[in-house]
Design brief:
Blueprint (H helix, E strand, L loop, with lengths): L1 H24 L2 E14 L3 E14 L2 E10 L2 E12 L3 E9 L3 E12 L2 E10 L9 E13 L2 E9 L1 E2 L11 H6 L1 H10 L8 E2 L5 E12 L2 E10 L2 E13 L3 E11 L3 E13 L2 E11 L8 E14 L2 E9 L5 E12 L2 E10 L2 E13 L2 E10 L2 E12 L1
Antiparallel strand pairs: 1-2, 1-24, 2-3, 3-4, 4-5, 5-6, 6-7, 7-8, 8-9, 9-12, 10-11, 12-13, 13-14, 14-15, 15-16, 16-17, 17-18, 18-19, 19-20, 20-21, 21-22, 22-23, 23-24
């Protein structure tokens, strides 16, 4: 199901990108993808899945359908409809897993630089009527100028609202740790992030975020509020120089009003095409302890170009500063082929190797993935996609 959800997001993005051209030419753009996958299930079983994704776009209207099949037959279906009316954008997503389980309607509009979005979600639809849950998410966001941005998310019958902004708790930390993010994307497709719908259409959670990045200063504050009041805040404070590119950032995680639960220190340096990133983590201790927070781990990442390839390495150390892991990623583009590889090690040695290849042949996109360890193949997939 994750493959289908990721595929439908990619397909919708491609169609929306091409939608402007379709509107100008009053034509139809489309996308179709066929894929098959294998995954090992310990101790001695496996899953075979296949998916079909179809997308059509014409004059600002987009239709995307993704169907997943497994060894038992129909597994899941996701349908997304989108209408871009200029100032107003309307979308609906319906899911069958394998029965009707999710229906989400979103309306978003831009008013004088303020983006207003309202989501209405019907979930837990597998039971007989009227056993279902209703959730709503109100989103307000704006770029106020001078490097300042604000986001407000309010959930009624819905929690985990951070997933509406990619699950990113600290936006500047996410930017500075870009090498680690790229390694994760090379290793696997991103997870589809959803809010969680709970029984009762009552206020459940609100997230407020304020960002400022100008004159070398980078800072942000993100606050979580629930029925009991302030539940958590994450503060970022740092400085960024442009030449050479050096960034320093401290991230403080506070539970309630005063309890510091974590501290991250990030250093990001880019010079002559080489990027070095250091991430030091501290966590809250349990009394009695000599300090309120103690060292929890250290990670280093180095990214540099090598011919047509980008090499990324990430090394992790645990709280005892003992070696915990090493990831080596390779991202190479030699037209018309795109190759990606990630090799993982831990304290005991080799863990896993994943290889992914993508090529454009006669207007079609071919893709293959294989991941293995010493026990054999863990997962494999192959697919073909056509755009028209």
């Amino acid at each position: 199901m994750r493959r289908v959800c990721v595929g439908i997001v990619i397909c919708a993005t491609l169609l929306l990108t091409a939608g402007g051209t379709a509107m100008l030419g009053s034509g139809i753009t489309g996308y179709v993808s066929l894929g098959i996958g294998y995954e090992f299930v310990p101790p001695a079983s496996y899953d075979i899945t296949s998916d079909v994704i179809l997308g059509l776009s014409v004059s600002g209207f987009t239709f995307v359908s993704a169907t997943a099949l497994d060894a038992y037959g129909f597994a899941a279906q996701t349908v997304r409809l989108t209408a871009d009316l200029g100032v107003v954008r309307i979308s609906e997503e319906i899911r069958f897993e394998p029965f009707f389980s999710w229906n989400e309607i979103r309306v978003a509009m831009d008013i004088l630089g303020l983006c207003v979005g309202l989501d209405l979600i019907l979930a837990d639809l597998l039971g007989p009527p009227p056993d279902y849950s209703i959730g709503g998410v109100l989103e307000l966001s704006s770029q106020l100028g001078f490097g300042t941005g604000i986001v407000s998310l309010t959930g009624f019958g819905a929690t985990d609202l951070l997933n509406r902004v990619g699950g990113i708790e600290a936006p500047f930390r996410h930017q500075l740790m870009g090498s680690f993010v790229v390694l994760d994307r090379l290793r696997q497709d991103p997870e589809l992030l959803d809010v969680v719908v709970v029984p009762g259409f009552f206020f459940e959670e609100q997230i407020l975020r304020l960002e400022f990045g100008r004159w070398g200063v980078i800072t942000s504050g993100t606050a979580w509020l629930d029925n009991a009041g302030l539940a958590r805040t994450v503060w970022e404070m740092g400085y960024r120089l442009d030449d050479p590119s050096i960034s320093f950032l401290a991230v403080i995680d506070v539970l309630g009003w005063v309890t510091v639960s974590g501290l991250d220190l990030v250093l990001d340096l880019i010079m002559d095409g080489v990027r070095f990133t250091s991430h030091t983590a501290f966590v809250e201790t349990t009394p009695p302890a000599p300090a309120p927070i103690l060292f929890d781990g250290q990670a280093f990442a180095v990214a540099f170009p090598l011919g047509p390839a980008q090499i990324i390495t990430a090394t992790q150390f645990d709280a005892s500063f003992l070696f915990a892991g090493l990831d080596i990623g390779v991202d190479a583009r030699i037209e018309p082929v795109w190759l990606r590889s990630v090799t993982q090690f831990d304290g005991t040695g080799f863990v896993e190797q994943s290889l992914r290849a993508q090529a454009m042949v006669l207007g079609a996109t071919l893709e293959a993935l294989i991941a293995f360890d010493f026990s054999g193949i863990l997962r494999a997939s192959a697919g073909i996609a056509l755009s028209f």
